[in-house]
Design a protein that fits this description.
Layout (H helix, E strand, L loop, with lengths): L1 E2 L4 E4 L4 E3 L7 H14 L3 E3 L7 H12 L9 E3 L8 H12 L8 E3 L6 H12 L7 E3 L10 H10 L5 E3 L9 H8 L6
Parallel strand pairs: 3-4, 4-5, 5-6, 6-7, 7-8
Antiparallel strand pairs: 1-2, 2-3
């Protein structure tokens, strides 16, 4: 399905729903997320949509109510800087509870989340054993979080790709580098 009103690309046979760069927000985005949840897609791409907490919490609520969430492998939420700590707390709780048990890729790049929200996500991912890719680029992450990132690298042996570019890491990189010696998949 390809709609000209806004950028929605649906690949049912591949299990992907891509609604990126559409700036949908609000009701239309929530309806699209419900469609995704009902069809049990493996990829949900909501990048660059100007998602705020109200929309994000509603989307997570729709996803949480549906068993299709267990099939998700790729969750792309990049470039939605209006999601705040409240939204990340809900996402983190869902990850911790095992709602995204097959999650292999999490893209949160460009969300400008800061250390507090990033630490919520990192802590939640410690229980995620299938994660292969994590993109936390451009999120205002500082050296204060470098030890937590290092701990995550030691625990997440499945992680193959970690993106941290355009953050505020300097001296803390030594902790991350040391953890890379223990994680042989990166």
């Amino acid at each position: 399905m390809l709609e000209s009103t806004y950028s929605v690309i649906e690949h049912r046979e591949l299990g992907h729903l891509k609604i990126d760069d559409a700036l949908l927000g609000g009701k239309r985005l929530q309806v699209s997320a419900l469609n995704w949840a009902e069809n049990g897609y493996k990829t949900l791409d909501l990048s660059k949509n100007g998602i705020d907490d109200a929309s994000f919490l509603k989307i997570l609520e729709l996803i949480e109510k549906n068993e299709g969430v267990k099939k998700i492998k790729r969750l792309k939420l990049g470039h939605n800087p209006k999601i705040s700590k409240l939204g990340y707390e809900k996402l983190g709780a869902m990850i911790t509870e095992g709602r995204f048990k097959n999650l292999e890729e999490l893209d949160l790049q460009g969300n400008l989340m800061g250390d507090n929200a990033a630490s919520i996500i990192i802590d939640a991912l410690l229980a995620q054993r299938k994660l292969k890719l994590l993109d936390l680029s451009q999120n205002r992450i500082s050296d204060r979080l470098s030890m937590r990132i290092a701990d995550m690298l030691v625990v997440l042996k499945s992680l193959e790709n970690l993106f941290l570019k355009w953050n505020h890491l300097s001296k803390g990189v030594k902790h991350i580098s040391a953890a890379l010696l223990e994680n042989t998949t990166l």
